[in-house]
Design a protein that fits this description.
heterotrimer; A alpha/beta (501); B alpha/beta (326); C mainly alpha (319); B: 326 residues; alpha/beta; six-stranded parallel beta sheet; six-stranded mixed beta sheet; 10 helices; 47% helix; 17% strand; elongated; C: 319 residues; mainly alpha; two-stranded antiparallel sheet; 12 helices; 71% helix
Chain lengths: 501, 326, 319
């Protein structure tokens, strides 16, 4: 297993004036599972795009099995045995799962589609991945996690010798991750080389023998799993030591305080039913649940985006269910949505407008006060440590973590007493995740009630004063933060219906 | 949401019922007349004012004849295909006669022949379909009318000066009028046509062109418009200084004669608007009575209206308009 | 939308200036004759005829920025002209009452569009296509295709509020453009329109009243089209059901040439008005080139493509 399946030799790539890759060289041994890590903007995606043939390097070369390779395009790379599972969902929502898997390389005979064969092969692939849907399901009708698995199946459909996965687990639950890893390990047994990009360090250590770290387009180093601890990797990624975690300086909530948010019997079928919970000032409550458990829908209903069928909501002194997000914001709530690209950011507006929009809408102010807003926005960028060229920059020039901080800052500008967040650190790098966690702690310490939906179990365990577990639209249990561990939380989240008392 | 959709469906239903009711009403009145002859009269489009007088004429002739009912229907705008569809619908309705002003005679020839073969007599008015089996055409020969415009211009300008022409591309009759004008003007060594403007059947565009063209050619001797767009309003000719530039225009319907009185227009060429309708209906009635027209092309002649005869013309016009309610 | 005068509008002004310079050079007369294109009365002429498009284009630009499209303005212009003409000339209403009625009719077209888009949830293309048919059809039904001569009922040399009649249309266009430009960049309402057009979901999450924003733009667009129709009826002196046929496409093209993106979120009111001037200059100047009158459809089409392609290249480079 010493020969290199893939070698990068002094690969360079620039976009405009920005150097995405600046002389990267390393080998991926055949049959290895090789992790590629780095903060957003470190160059991982660019490297994968070069590997998959959708980009050409400006300089340097790529060798497959020791022979220099140059791909005319993604199809060319695929026929040479290199498959990629992309981070973005490339699915065609209006086509069936099997059509998605074979899109662009349909099995044909005399130009006719061999539907049955494609369907059969899809069914076999889906069985290998242990996913319970038919090849004829429309991809758009699948939950996000399953769509990701369709991507994996798509890469597996052609027996690739090298399989690169770009953050395949961002929207998967632990159980699904386990299934995926079983499949990946199985592939490795059969000699497939894996290149695995992820932000989740525990996963890397579980799956991969070697870990390559990129930073700002440079190759920082390749580490052996056996001889490395995760904090060394983190240090290599961020180029500095992370400050030690603020040892919960806030004493947390006081039991005597009146809850700021109180929900009783809230129901919106089929998303959730009979949800009751309360959050006190200074308290961080994590709402843990798998995809489809109804946690996002619950937060969105609380924020006035939907009308519940039954139940009551009290926010501070207000006892009515918010009628609209504006109404909710006026009541002192804020919601940081899950999908910052689609639900959070305005890519046609500059950062200043993105930052002040919600507050101004909630205030119902009539005029736009340019100068004041600009200086306020500048202040917000500084306070929340957003790396941006300035308030006149557009969001697409920011990295994912900084984009998320912009969305966060927009809502914190309202000074919310009740902070709702949906997957606040989804797809952001380690450094940004750390910062976002400290921001949440700061908010709580300042007396806000924080209700955070997350499927990232380590995050939940780290942040929560109290963990509330949802499954199939109902609350299945509560665990105080200090008693919560992975096993107890997961047992509540995954128990067979009827098993939980 | 469901309520809104329900309301919409309701609206549509009400509309349908209303239409149906309307149709029933007409057919009843037709049946009530017993032996009334139903003649379809089809203009080029409903949006040109000149055709309203044809409608008045047709209805008056029908009232005079007593046993004729006129069905007036045409395309909302000048649309050849739509006109053909209307013509075909009258064939299937088996009306007793059709009088049509063809947007494109060649295009309609087959359909007209089909009507004649089905035993429905067809006459054309205003614009002919010469290759078809229609019984007769009643109207102006457009080339001849164009020549008259050209000759009047030559007379007025003593055969000297620059001319600008206004037309609209696509209409056959305008093309033929233009041809007549050019035949006369091009023979005059002292006269040149500096420009032929296409105003795209848009009367707003016509006034814009007149203003910018006057700007461009300050020494223009005359404008000749082969269509009536410039005289539909009093404002379109504001840019023209009548002491320098004369204006010759087709069509004489109000308010055009008033523009002659105001000195803005010198010559108008009028067609027999009422005659289009009344004469066509009479021709059809005669054919039904077994009297074939004397010739297949009947020249209606034109009215040349100038400052000298405008009062007399308006007098006659008023009488014809009143004839509508005898 | 940083400043009232942002760079994209500057480039539209530049195109307009280049266009004017080109025609000034191309149409320059020999000898000492006065310039047929470059003179005051001709400039007024261009403004007067462009304003029929320009006033409606203000509304169309707002609809496009909000991520929609409006196919109804041409038909609403015609309907307003017919309503004004019919009431003023044939029913003997006062001019003020007729104008108010025409604008009210336009307003109801806008309300209908808003109901169809916001409450029924129809795509704007379909909703406005339907309203276009309804407005145009109503105009034909009201007039039975007849032409209404408004000019005969207006006093000769009439100067409303002491303004010569030719100045009314350009004045209205420029005034409305400034008012709506300020509303779009200096007011929360305008920022809401940009937000909805840029990302409707994010706007909903951010507390923007998406339904209210959409309702307001469709109602205002129809209102402005009706104003355009009123101006047309008074300045041109006619009311007719087939007026402004196909103007909706010219109006959309003007907004796009002025920087609006049909996918929403980008564009400006001033840009759209400048766009109508670009076409207005073409309409004015091309007929002055001997023989060019038959080429102008072609040239207008080419100009749209060239300007939009240039704009996209610039945007791509700027990113």
């Amino acid at each position: 297993m010493s020969s290199a399946a893939v070698s990068f030799r002094d690969v360079r790539k620039s976009f405009g004036g920005v150097r995405a890759l600046d002389g990267v060289s390393f080998d991926v041994a055949a049959g290895d599972a090789h992790a590629l890590v780095g903060e957003n903007g470190a160059g991982k995606s660019t490297l994968l795009k070069i590997l998959s043939g959708s980009l050409r390097p400006d300089n340097g070369e790529l060798a497959i099995d020791g022979r220099p390779a140059s791909f005319a395009g993604p199809r060319d790379a695929l026929t040479q045995g290199i498959g990629i599972v992309h981070q973005e969902m490339l699915a065609f929502p209006d086509l069936s799962v099997s059509a998605n898997i074979f899109a662009g390389r349909e099995l044909t005979r005399w130009g006719m589609l061999r539907e049955r064969e494609m369907r059969d092969r899809t069914r076999a692939l889906l069985e290998r991945l242990h996913v319970p849907f038919s090849p004829d399901t429309l991809a758009g009708a699948l939950p996000a996690a399953y769509r990701q698995l369709v991507q994996v199946a798509r890469a597996l459909a052609f027996d690739c010798r090298v399989l690169a996965l770009d953050e395949p687990t961002t929207s998967l639950t632990d159980a699904e991750v386990d299934d995926l890893f079983a499949v990946l390990n199985d592939l490795r047994q059969r000699g497939v080389t894996l290149i695995y990009v992820s932000h989740r360090l525990p996963e890397l250590f579980e799956l991969c023998e070697r870990i390559t770290v990129l930073r700002d387009g440079h190759h920082v180093g390749t580490f052996d799993r056996a001889a490395t601890r995760s904090d060394q990797i983190v240090r290599a990624m961020v180029g500095r030591d992370l400050p030690p975690r603020v040892a919960d300086s806030s004493a947390g909530p006081r039991a005597s305080d009146q809850p700021l948010l109180e929900i009783a019997g809230l129901t919106r079928r089929p998303a959730f039913e009979q949800v009751s919970l309360s959050v006190r000032p200074g308290e961080i409550v994590c709402l843990f649940g798998l995809v489809g458990s109804g946690r996002s829908e619950l937060l969105e209903t609380l924020f006035g985006l939907y009308t519940p069928e039954a139940g009551s909501v009290r926010v501070l002194d207000r006892t009515s269910v918010p009628a609209s997000p504006r109404d909710a914001a006026r009541a002192g709530m804020a919601l940081v949505p899950e999908d910052r690209q689609n639900q959070g950011l305005f890519f046609n507006l500059d950062l200043r407008h993105n930052l002040v929009l919600s507050r101004e809408m909630a205030r119902g102010s009539l005029c736009v006060r340019d100068r004041l807003e600009r200086s306020e926005a500048q202040e917000m960028l500084r306070t929340w440590n957003v790396k941006a060229p300035g308030v006149e920059a557009y969001p697409d020039s920011l990295s994912g973590g900084n984009q998320q901080k912009v969305v966060l800052a927009r809502w914190l500008a309202l000074g919310p007493r009740v902070l709702l967040m949906d997957e606040p650190t989804k797809g952001v790098d380690v450094g940004a995740k750390f910062e976002i966690h400290s921001i949440i702690r700061r908010q709580a310490a300042a007396g806000s009630a924080c209700l955070i939906a997350s499927s990232d179990l380590p995050e939940v365990l780290e942040l929560a004063h109290r963990v509330v577990v949802m499954r199939e639209g109902r609350i299945r249990g509560e665990i105080a933060g200090e008693h919560a561990d992975e096993e107890r939380v997961m047992r509540l989240a995954t128990a067979e219906p009827g098993a939980a008392a | 949401m469901r309520m809104v959709r329900g309301a919409l469906v309701g609206l549509v239903l009400v509309g349908l019922v209303a239409c149906g009711g309307g149709q029933r009403a007409t057919s009843e009145s037709g049946a009530g007349g017993g032996t009334k002859l139903r003649f379809a009269v089809i203009p080029k489009s409903l949006d040109l004012p000149v055709f309203n007088y044809a409608k008045v004429g047709a209805e008056r002739a029908a009232a005079e004849l007593g046993n004729v009912e006129v069905i007036w229907r045409g395309p909302e705008v000048a649309d050849q295909l739509r006109q053909k569809e209307i013509l075909e619908s009258f064939i299937t309705q088996r009306v007793d006669g059709i009088a049509i002003s063809c947007l494109n005679g060649d295009f309609l020839t087959d359909t007209i022949n089909r009507a004649v073969d089905a035993g429905i007599p067809v006459v054309t008015w205003d614009a002919d379909a010469p290759k078809s089996k229609r019984a007769a055409y009643w109207g102006v020969d457009d080339v001849a009318a164009g020549r008259i415009m050209g000759e009047e211009a030559v007379k007025m300008l003593n055969g000297k000066g620059k001319i600008a022409i206004i037309t609209s591309l696509g209409a056959v009759n305008l093309q033929r009028r233009l041809q007549g004008v050019r035949e006369v003007i091009d023979k005059q060594p002292g006269m040149t046509v500096v420009e032929t403007y296409d105003i795209k059947e848009d009367s707003v565009r016509a006034s814009e062109i007149i203003a910018s063209g006057t700007n461009r050619y300050p020494d223009l001797a005359a404008w000749i418009s082969v269509g009536g767009w410039p005289v539909f309003t009093r404002n379109a000719l504001d840019a023209v200084d009548p002491s320098k530039t004369k204006f010759i225009c087709f069509d004489t319907i109000p308010p055009a004669p008033e523009l002659i009185r105001a000195g803005k227009v010198q010559i108008l060429i009028g067609q027999k608007y009422f005659g289009w309708g009344s004469e066509s209906v009479k021709l059809l009635a005669n054919i039904k009575a077994g009297k074939m027209p004397p010739s297949s092309i009947i020249d209606s002649g034109v009215d040349i209206v100038t400052a000298a005869n405008v009062d007399e013309y308006l007098e006659r016009w008023k009488k014809m308009e009143k004839g509508e309610q005898p | 939308m940083k400043r009232l005068w942002q760079t994209r509008e500057l480039s539209t002004v530049l195109i307009l200036a280049l266009e004017v310079l080109f025609f000034a050079w191309y149409l320059a007369p020999e000898g000492g004759r006065s310039h047929p294109f470059l003179n005051g009365p001709n400039a007024l002429l261009i403004l007067k005829y462009s304003s029929i498009y320009g006033i409606a284009a203000i509304g169309a630009a707002m609809v496009i920025i909000s991520g929609g499209v409006d196919l109804a303005p041409g038909a609403v212009i015609a309907l307003a002209s017919v309503v004004l003409g019919g009431l003023f000339v044939e029913s003997g209403w006062s001019l003020g009452a007729s104008v108010s009625a025409a604008i009210l009719v336009g307003l109801s077209c806008g309300v209908l569009t808003a109901v169809l888009v916001v409450l029924v949830g129809l795509p704007p293309f379909i909703a406005t296509l339907g309203v276009m048919g309804i407005a145009r059809g109503s105009a034909f039904i009201l007039t039975e295709g007849r032409f209404i001569d408004v000019s005969g009922s207006l006093p000769r040399g009439w100067q409303p509020f002491g303004v010569p009649i030719d100045w009314i249309a350009p004045g209205a266009m420029i005034g409305l453009a400034i008012v709506f430009q300020i509303l779009m960049v200096r007011f929360q309402w305008g920022r809401g329109i940009y937000a909805v057009g840029g990302n409707e979901t994010a706007a909903r999450f951010s507390g923007v009243g998406v339904g209210a924003v959409k309702t307001s733009v469709y109602v205002i667009a129809a209102l402005l089209a009706a104003v355009s129709g009123v101006v047309l009826a008074i300045v041109q002196g006619q009311g007719k059901a087939d007026l402004a046929m196909g103007y909706e496409l010219d109006i959309i093209a003007s907004a796009v040439v002025g920087g609006a993106s049909l996918s929403g979120g980008r564009g400006s009111v001033i840009g759209a008005v400048l766009g109508t001037l670009i076409f207005g200059v073409l309409r004015n100047a091309l007929p002055q080139i001997p023989g060019a009158t038959f080429y102008d459809r072609l040239i207008v089409g080419l100009v749209v493509i060239v300007i939009v392609v240039m704009d996209q290249l610039l945007v791509r480079r700027g990113r």
